[in-house]
Amino acid sequence: MTTRTPCVVGLNLGHDGGAALITEHTTVAISEERINRTRYSPGWQAALLYCLHAAGLQLNDIDQVVVSGIGNEPPSWEETRLGHFGIRPDRTVAVDHHLSHAYTAYCLSPFEQATVLVVDGGGNSGDTETFYTATPKGIERIGSNAPTRRRTGGIGAAYEAVTNYLGWHEQEAGKTMALAAYGDPNAFPDPLFDLDGTHVHGRLHHTHARGIADLVARTGWQVGPPDTRGDQLRGADLAAYLQAQTEQILTALTEHVIATTGLSNLCFAGGVALNCVAADKLRRLPSVTGYFAPPAASDRGQALGCALYGWHRLTGELPRRPATNDYFGRAYSDAEIEQALKRDPRSGLVERRRAAFQWRRESDIAATAAQLLADGHLVGWFQGGSELGPRALGHRSILADPRTTDSSTALNSKVKRREPFRPFAPAILEEHADKWFDLGGATSPFMLLAPSVRPEKTGAIPAAIHVDGTARVQTVNPDHTPEFSGVIEQFHRITGVPVVLNTSYNQQEPIVETPAHALATFQASGLDAACIGNYLVERATLTP
Ligand SMILES: [Fe+2]
């Protein structure tokens, strides 16, 4: 008889669905969108099978399934549809949505004791802002927004309303944050939120365009018709006002909450924790001694939070798994990569445009990539397991030379086709980070802080700097991210700059997951090369 560790699965039944699986030694997690290729997709079925495959387990190996969702109540057994997978009700529990966020925030953090703050568009029971104490004994809910206040009065809902109004999906709040740098944060004098103790009272009473109608009624500012897509800078003052008000209310809330708990390490989760501009202000507050946000702070981390909760519930051990990286996806073998490159249908390759390519195995793929970057090429960089969160952190990235804005222009025109006001982010070797960015000794391994670039360095990396002089930087540690560090080290050796431009490996669709996705995106886009594992893929050269 073999002994095995418990196996716990977490499933997110809401938007940004997905699955996570943890055992004693394994953590695997992925969003459904990475597999079904539909952005923000609900669902968990394909993700669950992916996690089981990665862990070498079967459905009947699962000891505990934990589910979460949004809405008034956590999901019922009938809503889970787990019966179709042969999973019994007595192996399934539901967890509160915000508590799941709190588990990712604390269990992945380096802190023994912390205040956990969760802020998102809405969880269960009208939760939009909740806070907890977290110690090795457990995670205890201390307070929340007033339960009688409508969800639309929350911080996240206000951000969603403006983001929708500007023509974007509510999960694209990062676009609004980027646009804010172009506007006047003092465009309106009145506050958008009030704070009563730790209770936030937003002054919007609706989400979507009706929420903006509320704002206009209060301010008298004519912000124009809904959906200004194509002319987004018109919305810059609105975005700047929203961002400034969000920063102010989060600052006041954090100070109140920490004064209440008496624990000065702050773990921040929920979709609002992806607001790296606000996060950079919170972590500098005098009352905050340590700051952590999990890389999958939004609902993409729900499934993982569920699994962590389930482990605690099943084993009695509060899992402490401090995250040094966000690579919760599975790695692909050389055989699997070659299967895609040989256009073997078993790889799942769908060649939408059969651009001719050639490939070969490289002895030092990092050196090859670095030279291509230094020569001004756009390089797809696919290594190891994928990132769970929304940021590509060097495993599913597109890289470019940060020393010239020609790179960012080419990235947008040939591959990404993003709104032109959105910046691209730098990735820097951790040992050099403080010399280039005002990090104050902090690291930013998950690209969730936005410090200012040191004035003397701005001329060296113009492609990586936003209009306000900040950059959404990733600090890269060779011990935690060896392949990505290798490229930056080689680029540094060639150019004297320890920074590369880093954006997600995708083109108007979810980030690539498999080697076949990476090849298809290379073929359909204007990438100059792709490094998939140790394999270099280039455009085919014509031979006479
Ligand atoms: Fe959430």
From TrEMBL:
Domain Carbamoyltransferase: 9-73, 94-308
Organism superkingdom: Bacteria
InterPro entries: ATPase_NBD, Carbam_trans_C, Carbam_trans_C_sf, Carbtransf_dom, NodU/CmcH_Carbamoyltrnsfr
UniProt-listed CDD domains: ASKHA_NBD_NodU_CmcH-like_N (cd24033)
One Pfam family recorded for the sequence: Carbam_trans_C
Leader sequence residues: none
Sequence ranges assigned to domain Carbamoyltransferase C-terminal in this UniProt record: 370-539
Similarity comment text for this entry: Belongs to the NodU/CmcH family.
PANTHER family: NODULATION PROTEIN U
Protein name: Carbamoyltransferase
Organism: Streptomyces stramineus
Lineage: Bacteria, Bacillati, Actinomycetota, Actinomycetes, Kitasatosporales
